[in-house]
Amino acid sequence: MTDKKKIAILGASGYTGAELMRLLALHPHVAITALAAERSAGQPVWAVYPHLAGVALPDMVKIDAIDFSKIDLVFCCLPHATTQKVIAALPANLKVIDLSADFRLKDTAAYAQWYGHEHHAPDLQKTAVYGLTEINRDAVRAARLVANPGCYPTAAQLPLIPLLRKKQIEPGDIIVDAKSGVSGAGRDAKPDYQYCEVTDGMRAYGVASHRHTPEIEQGLSEAFGKPVTINFTPHLVPMSRGILASIYVKHADGTSANGLRDTLNAAYAKEPFVHVLPAGASASTRNLRGSNHCVIGVFADRVPGRAIIISVIDNLVKGASGQAVQNMNAMFGWPETTALEQPPLFP
Amino acid sequence: MTDKKKIAILGASGYTGAELMRLLALHPHVAITALAAERSAGQPVWAVYPHLAGVALPDMVKIDAIDFSKIDLVFCCLPHATTQKVIAALPANLKVIDLSADFRLKDTAAYAQWYGHEHHAPDLQKTAVYGLTEINRDAVRAARLVANPGCYPTAAQLPLIPLLRKKQIEPGDIIVDAKSGVSGAGRDAKPDYQYCEVTDGMRAYGVASHRHTPEIEQGLSEAFGKPVTINFTPHLVPMSRGILASIYVKHADGTSANGLRDTLNAAYAKEPFVHVLPAGASASTRNLRGSNHCVIGVFADRVPGRAIIISVIDNLVKGASGQAVQNMNAMFGWPETTALEQPPLFP
Amino acid sequence: MTDKKKIAILGASGYTGAELMRLLALHPHVAITALAAERSAGQPVWAVYPHLAGVALPDMVKIDAIDFSKIDLVFCCLPHATTQKVIAALPANLKVIDLSADFRLKDTAAYAQWYGHEHHAPDLQKTAVYGLTEINRDAVRAARLVANPGCYPTAAQLPLIPLLRKKQIEPGDIIVDAKSGVSGAGRDAKPDYQYCEVTDGMRAYGVASHRHTPEIEQGLSEAFGKPVTINFTPHLVPMSRGILASIYVKHADGTSANGLRDTLNAAYAKEPFVHVLPAGASASTRNLRGSNHCVIGVFADRVPGRAIIISVIDNLVKGASGQAVQNMNAMFGWPETTALEQPPLFP
Amino acid sequence: MTDKKKIAILGASGYTGAELMRLLALHPHVAITALAAERSAGQPVWAVYPHLAGVALPDMVKIDAIDFSKIDLVFCCLPHATTQKVIAALPANLKVIDLSADFRLKDTAAYAQWYGHEHHAPDLQKTAVYGLTEINRDAVRAARLVANPGCYPTAAQLPLIPLLRKKQIEPGDIIVDAKSGVSGAGRDAKPDYQYCEVTDGMRAYGVASHRHTPEIEQGLSEAFGKPVTINFTPHLVPMSRGILASIYVKHADGTSANGLRDTLNAAYAKEPFVHVLPAGASASTRNLRGSNHCVIGVFADRVPGRAIIISVIDNLVKGASGQAVQNMNAMFGWPETTALEQPPLFP
Fold this sequence. Notes:
The structure is a homotetramer. By secondary structure, chain A is of the alpha/beta class. The first copy, chain A, is built from eleven helices and 14 strands. The longest helix of chain A is centred in the last third of the chain and has 16 residues, at 317-332.
């Protein structure tokens, strides 16, 4: 273990923290040496997550109890706002992958508008790299602080960015109808996410007002070179994991659904985690549970000039902890697939 | 019972047949006197549907065994194509409500194209009334043969028809992203609808090719006065009942989401089963299980000029058997709410 | 409405309160004229329970705001302990049906032991009638205060009491392995009942220590004439509603599973809500959702001298609010089935 | 790959076949070189199991097309009866792990009675080793043909065998109330396992008549040294994976629930896959999804002399394919945990 990288997870009692532990249990080059969870400090992990009973892990402590001089990389899974203060106080040589929304928006004014308070670490923000690995790989490799993308933004941007870069779709007519499993809401007890309130039914929420909207628009605007405003409508579906984004676009004159598919195929041909399906096919979230893959299908619409893109991920893996591990692998120069090769769990 | 209307249900062993029995059990003016189910002929209903054990019902028989001279109204829940032949052979004085797709499309050429065979009763088709009750009430009241609308078409047309009639939305830019519970696929055993294949996951299906598309377009075209082509993308969600349609529209110049909502409020102000929610609200399918209601929310989009409409029903009730009972009530001159006043089941 | 009985529901914001409103919406002889819910006081019911939007109901108020001189009967759905104080303060002429555990145990010392505090109304306790309708019908009809049974106790006692009365089973060898849907845990947000913690898995809880144990033992002891101690092991199953109790008994010499079934058939032959199935059959909770029925199957075991009883109810109906309505009907001299004749919702 | 063992899976299109592929994807010492599936012959695996799209696997063929001279070990996942004939025809040097019930019962007369036809390979039966690894490890290591245990029998026998060997429980009073997820019924489309029939409800089935009964009794009888007859009552629960067996036993005089727990602790102290929990604790199936673990809790009953044992596994892993891999590891002399160290998937 002497030559393994030493990892700390802050906010280990949430779902993304647990998912990091699950994935890193099979990673040959890292050792989790510190776990922080304020309310669960002093407890072993299995007391909070019995499914991890078979994994050798340190007990959870308060953040203050961690000696960060002995840590090589921190995964930060804390709530927004708290995160900014905590990361600002970490030693400057420490690599950090932040799974919160705190460093995703480059425009701190936009952050303040959507999150309701001033940004607490605007200088640090300037150094953060947005960790959509396939899109920002070189920057991620060189980064000290990676802002790991949100779940919806990952599902939406992976198919849209290559198309906008090539100006193959109209930037003013993008509709993202997204459906998410319930784990996206986190583990804290909330009335709306009790079993009896969620099972056997579905609903839209945050219509035209969800906080992932500016994050998606930021990525699309960069890709297009001009500001892009989108429709983004999330829905809650009775499943634990998974996001399915149905994206409705108008393609540019001279191209077609096939043209869009060709562009995506070319963009992701060498990527281990992004797959573009042949014409006529789309994926079920059920076939990606536990995996870091994003699967994309492209369809011609009956409405002339329009195409439909179906993009599917596991929100806790490619949409959170899996992409974080992928980014860590990139930052340390390991193959990005390390510890991410377990097939999905089905059924 | 002498003065009760005598009802037969053909295709009683499917979910829509069972749902008719559930609803009619509380109807004061009708008696179910014949039930036909080819494969279950000879069996009591409780052997096929134990939940109906407490309802007094005749045993199931083959269609040939029914004396239709003693029947006042037939609900036909048979598969398409079969239906046309069966209904064509019924006595002409018999009222008929058909829950299949067989008489919904006025253009029999369109029928042949989408269903893969010639229409078997084109003359009868000309007499059929499309039973979207709130839209075609007068015709339904006078009808001998009602084509009961499909589940998706009900959820989509109720909000869109009043808006298209008033030319408040662009007809060339309508996207219907619809999510359905699994009962919409019927009761027959199919590999894709086994529990382990469906639970805890979701997928799109029939993208840009679902047979409910021409039915929706027919209604929208009539409302607008010119042909309307739409995007319609259905999804399968792990829940028994419910449809949630997220509809993306471009509103006409000079109006707004509020204007659309006002139009819908005016159109449905006196309707017992269609409810338009105040700004900011939308419904969950979970709050409509077992009821004949359609609940509609309207939102302004962030994309200028666009609005979002969320329309929710129970696919087996307002989307099938409940609307059929509503139509029967209209045809016999009873209050439309008769036997449809049970509150939804929650949780 | 002048001649309708006036009903108040205290604790209207919980699931049993909502279920009372659903059932009473179809009751011809009562009007709900007051609803109390401390935290939701001032709100309309639909704001808390959107599925009841179509039912005409008064807004919720604090208990203090109710003029009980204008109420004929109170359903009390408050938490235990609170309940005792509230009911003790009600006018003496008011009929009360209490859905909490506060007046179920006749032995207030046992109450103190299992619930952790002294009973606050021991004198009132002496007047309470245990409302297992089929067993205590005459006492219920004459009661002023009915202690409505718990969900598990209803499922367990209905099959066991007739057998113990006839000494057909051994009192020292009764095992009740019970499985419940999640609504039994109530509507308050608790970490253990979040969707992601419950779905797609199951667990035992309260093994050999659940508070419904003394309630079941009280009923069985009365039936047998001597103290009976049982094994009672509850389990949490990912479904909204339903209890299935698998009961393992040793039958007395000279009898058999068939003999037990005959006894139950005789005991419940005229009961509208309790059904004994023929040999070889048992029920699914899925076929009872929303109904007040209890369905019982009896099987011979492979172990000589043993029998297996499967008893199924909807925990929120026969296990709570439905039985409460049944008791109200009995107390007012109406047919017990009034407002309880809606068939179950399936699928 | 030259030094990897070559593996064939017969019946690759069922859930146990798919689960073998999922687990073996991470196995360092084997290569899957042949997959047989009669109806899916000619197709790639991803066409049948999209979740395995990322795993390099041969296309599926008919059994006849496999050159077994190039195979080192066969996993046989075929239906019963078929299995006996197929295995009898395999080369004698080939190692075989059979996941069907065909070679589990040593008494071929009992097989004929429970399965309704004569055993087709009685001589081969005599050579089969029952592969409950922790119990029969030495025999498994030396075996040519391993009969992999059923899911329910695994969950029931692991806690009961050590107790019966030590005569700590009464052999005539064992009740196994078992609850299973739906994947135990396999992947073929059957009406009873359609989503809408299973979700949000539960039922008992095969009461006192399930085919796993003689398998459990065989193991318990061997452990006790005399014939043991048990109660075994299976239930179907709306979850994909998992078995929870609630086992009710009478302990011998002079011992207690604590004594039983001590025995189990001693028996499994060194086992990587069987865990005995401290007093007061039991497991949820949800925390074992995808893993090869069996977790056991022991509780004192309120009924004097009785104890309650809660045993939990994933039916597709420790109850099928995981134990099969564990047995393969034992047969080839590899650490039994090889390829079985992935943590469970939660949530």
